[in-house]
Amino acid sequence: MTQSGDGREAHLRGDPSTHQLRLFLLLAEELHFGRAAQRAFMTQPAFSQQIRALERRLGLTLVDRSTRTAGLTRAGQALLPEARGVVEAADRLHQAAVAQKRAVTGRIVIGSLLRLTQ
């Protein structure tokens, strides 16, 4: 899959999901669809579909596929650090959101009534 330049695939393109990028990172580590799918707790066909969907969204072939192994194309190698950066940024965003959710906000008013005796 390459860029066609004429916009025929434009309707298939868009921003990749962080889920797809995480799967791409797993595949880049394993260089094997079956093992990467296992690590993602997915079936191999579902995993492959997600990688193909990512490739369609980006308009690039990221993975050279053979019967036994998978290797990254030049485009896949070039985009690997960027994908890692996006996933790390998404993780930081999630951690910041959790911290904000757990943060204690508001006011506490403490008062007491004393009874004076004569």
Features:
118 residues; elongated
Can you walk through the features of this model?
It is a single chain. With 118 residues, the protein is mostly helical. The chain has helices at residues 18-30, 33-39, 44-58, 74-102; strands spanning 63-65, 70-72. A two-stranded antiparallel sheet has the order 1-2. Helix 1 (18-30) crosses helix 2 (33-39), helix 1 crosses helix 4 and helix 2 (33-39) crosses helix 3. The radius of gyration is 24 Å and the shape is elongated.
Specify the overall morphology. Answer: elongated
Pairing-aware structural class of the strands and helices?
mainly alpha
What would you report as the Rg, rounded to the nearest angstrom? 24 Å
> Roughly what is the average pLDDT, rounded to an integer?
87
Q: Supply the number of helical segments.
A: 4
Number of extended strands: 2
Measured distance between first and last alpha carbons: 93 Å
What portion of residues is helical? 40-55%
The biggest beta sheet reads:
2 strands, antiparallel
- Low-pLDDT parts are 1-8
Topology of this protein?
Elements: H1 18-30, H2 33-39, H3 44-58, E1 63-65, E2 70-72, H4 74-102
Antiparallel strand pairs: 1-2
Briefly say what this structure is.
The protein has four helices and two strands, in the order H-H-H-E-E-H. By secondary structure, the protein is mainly alpha-helical. The protein is elongated, with a radius of gyration of 24 Å.
